[in-house]
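Hi there, hope your week has been kind to you so far. For a while now I've been wondering how a particular protein folds. I'm sending you its amino acid sequence along with the backbone structure tokens. Could you read through the record and tell me how the tokens relate to the sequence? Take your time with it, there's no hurry, and the full record follows here.
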Amino acid sequence: MYTITLEVNQICNLRCDYCYLGEKTNQIMPEEIACKGIEIAFLNVEKHKDKSLWVDFVGGEALISFALLRKLVEHIEEEAAKRTIAVSYSITTNGTIMNNEILEWLVNNRVHLKLSIDGTMETHDRNRKTKHGIGSYRNIMQNISYFREYEERTKQYIQVAHVVTQNNYWEAFKSVKHLVEDLHFSIVDSSIDVTHRWTVEQLDKLGQEWENILCYYIKKKENGQAFLWAPILDLKKYGEEYVNSGFCGVGLIQIYVKTDGGIYGCAANLESSGCLGDVGKGFSVRKIKEYRELANQSNACLKCNIHAKCQSCKCIMNNLSYSNQINGYNPDMCYFEKKKITLWNKYDKKIG
């Protein structure tokens, strides 16, 4: 499968403290640029055996540009039918914009929904605020009936995106439990804000929170009330027999297209160092080859006793963003990687 992420706009009705886009440009992706990016994706999909494409829509708040989204899906469906390519869709939303028309579009096109909620109202509103400084939790709750109906009609679970930051990490377990127990979501993806340096003390506390969540996950599973906590999928990879290639596949299996047509490896690095090209000229094969050859060749990584299993060092764009070197690494994530491996070794039999 080949994945293209389309940044359909840089417009948002929220001002989240940790947004990876930083200051928004208020741009909407021109339809021409979107179609050129989609064409590049189709050309790459045709090189893959499974002939399947995943299109991920992001913003800003992507649903602000709903009219554009409808046009793009119509265009993609027409092109996919000509080429006999299977297409799946996903969209990330802050949950504040929803109505019957949007719901019908999501259901009819079986768009996988990713919803950003950071936990309880207190935790969520700490970072996810409107431009007037008002928390957005209540806005999401006003739309909760739409999300319930979406799951019922599509038989697809909504994936909740839960961001762990330096002002909420000590309540990560409380946040996940709230999302599962109180809001009844079945898929929670907890990700760590890596745009700031973490202290060892913070990461140690976060490691404790990760273990609490893991124990909660195991207990729910044993009681027949299983939910999916996405970091579990990462933990399970430690039990697989493989050698770390040091290359995540940027450009070869995925691209991120910004509103201005710039092509990037992924959202982990949208600086100039992460740019692979643009939709007008295509992306640089030379750069991708350079990533493959030089990724994960730092002496620190090669000498590390968990190198063969390490997932952090495979995140080229994150490491490049942090260190400005293709073969660099993020020491914070390196430290936490060892925490995660310790958890796997302790609970692998129960995780299954």
